[in-house]
Amino acid sequence: MTLRASPLHAAWQAVRRTWLLYHLGAPEFRFLFDPAPPDEWVALDCETTGLNVRSDEIIAIGAVRIVGNRILSSERLELLVRPQRAVSAQSIRIHRLRQSDVDQGLELDDALKRLLHFIGSRPLVGYYLEFDLAMLNRALFPLLGQRLPQPCIEVSGLYYDYKLRYLSEQERLHPMPVDLRFASMMQDLDLPMREAHDALNDAVMAALAFIKLRSLAQA
Q1: How many angstroms separate the most distant Cα atoms in the chain?
Q2: What angle do CA 67, 185, 45 make, to 5 degrees?
Q3: pLDDT in tens, 54-63
Q4: 37-41, 152-156, 171-175: segment of lowest average pLDDT
Q5: CA angle, corner 70, sides to 63 and 73, nearest 5?
Q6: Domains of the chain listed by start with CATH number
Q7: Within 13 Å of residue 50, how many CA atoms lie on the same side as its CB?
Q8: Is the N or the C terminus of the chain less surrounded, counting Cβ atoms within 10 Å?
Q9: DSSP conformation letters of 152-201
Q10: What crossing angle do the helices spanning 108-119 and 129-144 adopt, rounded to 10°?
């Protein structure tokens, strides 16, 4: 079932779109505000030098398009980004990207422009997407003068809602914590686990989880 937006909500969205377009710092990216292609999304992930959204840097971006219940593996984006500061040993242990690897990457602005053209106006899907978006929006603000405008879908939230659907009335009164770790979620959904902390792999796994959870919600 599809819920229609109320006239008031639709009017507010139109006003918001006009305001954001007026304040868009780079008019060549107006396409971000176009109507999204029906039944399409982009699953997204970033690898970074650390977890501080104010000081750490993006060093890899992975994204893949979803159409209906299919992941378009031929339509993917896999970018290395050259950071301004050296990559720490601790960071290398997590994502296995050495300084010599990222030194061959794109300048951040070039990588961001490629990402924007890849996303278009499609909604974004990801696992703990809030962090990736915080990193991207900080980097994009000098270019766009605002944050990414697309709707965002958090797969761990979809998974949490899915688990709550099957609780008994007694269990709902005293719910147990839901294990939201990526590996646990993928195993419970009977989905293949790729090597983690790789931007494209993590994007593909988020896409798989999104498709499976959409299917379960519609069952």
Answers
A1: 56
A2: 50
A3: 999 999 999 9
A4: 171-175
A5: 45
A6: 11-218 (3.30.420.10)
A7: 11
A8: N
A9: EEEHHHHHHHHHHHT--HHHHHSPPPP---HHHHHHHTT-PPPPSS-HHH
A10: 110
User: Residue 42: which H helix or E strand, with range?
Assistant: strand 40-48
Q: What is the pLDDT of residue 172?
A: 65
CA gyration radius, the chain: 19
Angle between helices 199-218 and 155-165 (to 10 degrees): 30
Residues 83, 95: contact at Cβ < 8 Å? no
Which residue in 202, 8, 216, 20 sits closest to 121, CA to CA? 20
H-type helices in 42-167, by residue range? 89-95, 99-102, 108-119, 129-144, 155-165
Question: Which residue in 67, 65, 101 sits closest to 83, CA to CA?
Answer: 101
Beta-bridged to residue 62, according to DSSP, are: 45, 78
Query: Of 46-50, 131-135, 174-178, 202-206, where does mean pLDDT reach its minimum?
Result: 174-178
pLDDT for 169 beyond 70: no
Query: Cα(168)–Cα(171) distance, rounded to whole angstroms?
Result: 5
Structure tokens at 73: 């593996």
| Residue, of 96 and 45, whose pLDDT is higher | 45
CA distance 108 to 36: 26
- Check residue 30 and report its DSSP letter: G
